[in-house]
# Entry
Amino acid sequence: MLFALYIGFYKNGKFNHDNWKVVTNWLAKSCNNVLLYSNLSLPHVSKSNLEFLEIESNTDETTDYKGYRIKFKNDKTLYYLEELIFNIHLGVSHVYFLYNDICVGELVVVDYENFVILNISEDETDGLSTLVPDIEHNIAICNKHKSDIESIIGDKMWYPLRHKT
# Structure
């Protein structure tokens, strides 16, 4: 099932909402690599400690974006995404959070409200939703921005991240 989690706006090139920290902490345990499409250069993408990362080019020739598959050598290295300065002006497009080749989350970076789309079971939502400081706010803002979320995921069925029903 697809669930949306609001992660807010950018501030100084970073996400400024507490939910970004929550979701990166959760993803640190749930994925082992990311696929990043961006106009960022390899030195910018790899600015963190490379002994914890393995980066390979994964560019899609049909787009103007460079593609990078970033494999984490331990579960602490996902935190590098939390600190990476994406900078909208450099054109980060998509970030796919993967466990091996299975997509567990997707982030389409925009210059307004941002959402991580999580592909998780309803059982998994309870553990994650209890970590979100204000789950009711997440539900309200997801419902308010329903058309923005649907423009990201198309006609797939989705729900705001919420407590298991």
